[in-house]
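Step 1: inspect the first sequence and its tokens.
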Amino acid sequence: MILTRAKSSDRRKKTAGAAADAAKAIDFGPLATWVGFNLRMAQASSFQAFSKLSQDVGENPGRFATLMLIAKNPGISQTALSRANGRDKSSLTPVLEDLVRRGLIQRQRMHNDKRTYRLKLTPAGEKTLAKLIGAARRHEENLDRVIGARERTRFLATLRRIAADLG
């Protein structure tokens, strides 16, 4: 049995090494120095790392911002949430329907406008969000380790400028 584990471990190491070698062999051309491409790659890596940390919660990490925005803005409309979350209303609706179905949020129609919904977390949603916040804090610590505490403020300012000027 110990031999089987060692062989399995060796296979994983060889596979990981081969993947790293294959990535080194790729010529990225101008993409290697383009901010947009590197920003996209960094976002993908960050999302994957957060996904690993949030697995124990049993919640998709993409739901984190949605739950947080609803928690911090009880009664927020779906339209305001879609703007704040940077999501199109049509892609946000199935997310909200899923959160309602699982009992994490409540959606209530406005009395004066039956087309508008107001959103708020349920107690189950608050518990889920608390767990996700724990995972997010660990993720932020990892990002701070990579970015550096001194660079964090400047890095965030740059990201906000990109979002504001190009968004």
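Step 2: inspect the second sequence and its tokens, then contrast the two.
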Amino acid sequence: MDIVKLSNVANKMVEDNKGLLAADESTGTIAKRLSTIGVESTEDYRRDYREMLFKADGLAEYISGVILFDETIRQKSQDGKSLTAILSDKGIMPGIKVDKGAKSLAGHDEEKVTEGLDGLVERVEEYVSMGAKFAKWRAVITIGDSIPTSYCIKANAHALARYARICQEGGLVPIVEPEVLMDGEHSIAKCEDVTKLTLKAVFNELFDHSVDSSGIVLKPNMVISGKNCQEQAGVEEIADRTIAVLLNCVPASVPGIMFLSGGQSEIDSTIHLNEMNKKKNDLPWSLSYSYGRALQESALKVWGGDNNNNMKAQEKLLVRARQNSLACAAKYEGEVA
């Protein structure tokens, strides 16, 4: 395991106020996204959409890497160039989603555990040969009546640690993504408690599996009120509670924390990132972003399945990437929705 190389990649992922474009939607998820614009989810449409995103001029100024789906890392553009080569030629690192999705947890049907460890060693080796520099594994923690259970948290933390160790041994920086979902009626205080329990369990497992924390990136949720909670916490409280949890749980040796948007709007996710960077006061890690929908939503609507709209859609993507890069530097000044 070359930890110096892994650490260099992890630091490069968060340097210069850059973030990640999460374009790793599974076939089912991208089909749902495309259906919102009336486009059938064929392989060609999926390729065209992602190619449009990756070819945006100036993207590398704000985006250090792109998380890809298995289909995408194997695809070629309309002119025959691999999509990974398009990114690499821009100086953008390709990454890859390696988990196989969240499935019902045995004995706890209302909870999920992420699968995909079988054959992971061989898949990591293949992805490295295809140019991938980092990987992603998402665990899902749901808040509800009597959940999450400690069993669910431990099962997902254990899987994340096994994944991270395999990736580091194979030469990929693991993005560790334990997502406490914002779906539900829970308060921000409940989200804070569950996020803290989850992160402590994850880092205990990472330590037990001898995962070097200087060669990972953490992709957590922000501490935020449930979507259906009657009392929605304000921007400052979200920033304060999120930073407090991170300081309590995350080792200083982790190079970067790249938040997921988790269903927040494009603008809200930027506002919250900016507020945290305003308050960070010499935190040991960089605070950045790894957004999917919160970078793509406007671009998807403008593209609409028509490649004649590529340039206008790319402009929308660049606006969101630029605003989030400004938020990494605590220089975001707001915008009109």
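Step 3: confirm your contrast with the notes below.
The two ends are 46 Å apart (CA to CA). The domain at 3-328 is CATH 3.20.20.70 (TIM Barrel).
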